[in-house]
Structures are given as C-alpha cells and as structure tokens.
Write a structure and sequence with these properties.
With 367 residues, the chain is an alpha/beta fold. The chain has 11 helices and 14 strands. The chain starts with 7 loop residues before the first helix and ends with a helix. It binds pyridoxal-5'-phosphate.
Length: 367
Amino acid sequence: MKIPFVDLLAQYKSIKEEIDQAISDVIHDSAFIGGKYLKTFEQNYANYIGTKQCIGVGNGTDALFLTLKALGIGKGHEVITVSNSFIATPEAITMTGAKVVFVDCDIHTYNIDVQKIESAITSNTKAILPVHLYGQPADMDPIIEIAQRYNLHVVEDAAQAHGAEYKSKKAGTTAPFACFSFFPGKNLGAYGDAGAIVTSNEEFAEKARMLANHGRKEKYNHEFEGINSRLDGLQAAILDVKLKHLEKWIERRRAIAKIYDEELKNIVITPDVLPDVRHVYHLYVIRVKNRNRIKEFLAEREIHTGIHYPIPLPFLKAYGYIEHKPEDFPTTYLLKDEILSLPIHGSMSDDQVEYVIKQLKIAVNRL
Ligand SMILES: *Cc1c(COP(=O)(O)O)cnc(C)c1O
C-alpha cells in the first residue's frame, strides 16, 4: 500500500466542484489582485481565528517579516525565537536587519523552552517570536508574562497551527500579532504561495497592510516604501473554499493522532500535549532510536515519512556565523537524530493508518 506523506490530489478530488467553480469565478471577474474574493477570505479567516483584521500577504515568511517591520523592528534590535523551527522564522528576523537569538526547545512539546527565555534577553531585545511547531501552541502564558515584564512585543508564528487552541484561545489570538502560512502542504493550504497576518490592533493592521502593498492606501499615493507581497484573488478564493472544510480535516487529523497515540505509545515516544491545548497535528512527530534505519525500512514499504528538521537552525551553515555549539541547545541537539514525522492528513484512510502502524511495529521490533 502506498502512503504518501501528504496527498493534495485526494483532497482536491473531494472538493473538486467547489474549487473549479471558485477558480472560474475569479477569472470571469478578473479579480486577480485585491477585489472581492480577497476581501471575503480575509473577513472569513479573521472571523474563524477571532481577530478584527486579517491581512492577506504573499506567503508566511513575508507575513513574519512584515509584522516585525510594522512593529519598527530593525537594525540594532534582537528578536528571540526557538532553535527548533523552519528557517523562515529566523530569516524574517534577519530580513529586518535585527539579530536573531535562538533559545532551546522543551523536551516534551518541542516548542520554545520558556525557562530559557529570560536569560536570552538583553537591552536590545525587542520581541519574542514563539512558533506553534507541528500544530501545538507554545506555552503562551509565561511568554506573555515575560514580555510584559520586559516590555517586549510577542508575535506568534502560527504557520503550522491553523485552528489550534491554547486555553480556549485560538492560535492567532494568544498574542497581539500572529502570522500564518498557506503553503500548499499546510493544514490550510493554497495552490501556490500565500500567507496572512492576523491582529485586532487596527493601527498596526493599517501599517502592515500598507507595507505589503508598496506603502500605499490609494493607487499612486505612496506614503512610504513597502514591498509587493499580496495574497492574490485566485489563492484567496481557493482558501475560502477550503476554510469551510478545515474543521473536518483537523478533526480527522486528531482522530488519526489518537489512534497513533494508542497503538504506538508503548514502542516509541509519542507526542506530549500540554493540558488545555488543541493540537492540530500539522505533523505527527515521534521519537525513535535507529531513526534513519526505521525511516528507510518504511520507505521500502512505500510509507513516506519526514524529518522536521534534520539540521536544527543554530547548526545550519546559514547561521554558522553565530558559532553555536551543541551544548548551547542540548534538547534540540538530542532530538535531531530521533524525530520522525509520520504521514497524517485529512484524506488518510483507516486502512492507511493501520498499515503505517503495522509496519512501524515491525520496524521497531526488528531494528
Ligand atoms: C511554512 C512555515 C513558514 C513560512 O511559510 P511560507 O508560506 O512557506 O513562507 C514559517 N514558519 C513556519 C514554522 C513554517 O512551518
């Protein structure tokens, strides 16, 4: 049985008529940039998250960059983020001219270790950028508390956490500013690059919206220089169709995660979820010894797994200039050789889930 890591074609087939109609509507209205489809999606996504504003932008990396930029972060400043994330998170910090400061992750949730944040703060620190990695929110209460004490901004990187919740608050509302990616493979994915910033701060929203659109509100009246990073009409219309199905797909992911938990908890380390949190399982990440051999064994049986991420951020060549050592990030360093992301998505059948479990059990017993 072939088990792809994600299956965007199966998802498309399940909503084909709605998607095809939406694409055709945008083309017939020539509503490619701006326009009603963008407005509708921004409104619906803001309603779903529970913020006053949603600003559609070109991708999740730009969402982070534009947010930091709109907060006035730049040269001479430092922004704290987690060592266990995708490169887009620190890239957005560096793009503003600020310095990225990595903090190790927690051994249970794999999110930023809140105990280690305070010692990373200096007089130049302007913001904390926690990531809700794999679809589980970071422990936001202590982060907000620290930020208030040191007068820092908090921006959520919610690129993997559409629909996740922390103490009954949706990811995207646990800090004043949050960023989403709609990269095709994300839990809510476009048919190309797309992203959004959400906030209930109207003044910030106006600034961010202008920055994303050449520093203007009106066509040729540019109040400052911005960039061109817009969510286009086609992607907005596609996302609006998919948003209606998102909860159903999240529930399917959660149901699969529950089966994985029960069947695998005695043979591998399964994900640890904070109390009062809704994990949306963008990724279902286990920990195993002999990870590489197990990954290979599964691949030979057509089960495609992933590693998120094989080289932790501080040890990437891109950040070699910071000269970090493994002992600076003991937890992240330990995890990198053990983590394995199993296939999980809204279109996965029970048979496929069973097959993954069966083969993984064989692999762990044998290797
Ligand atoms: C996907 C992702 C991003 C960037 O999103 P793009 O839309 O690909 O630019 C940022 N942060 C995290 C944690 C992500 O997973």
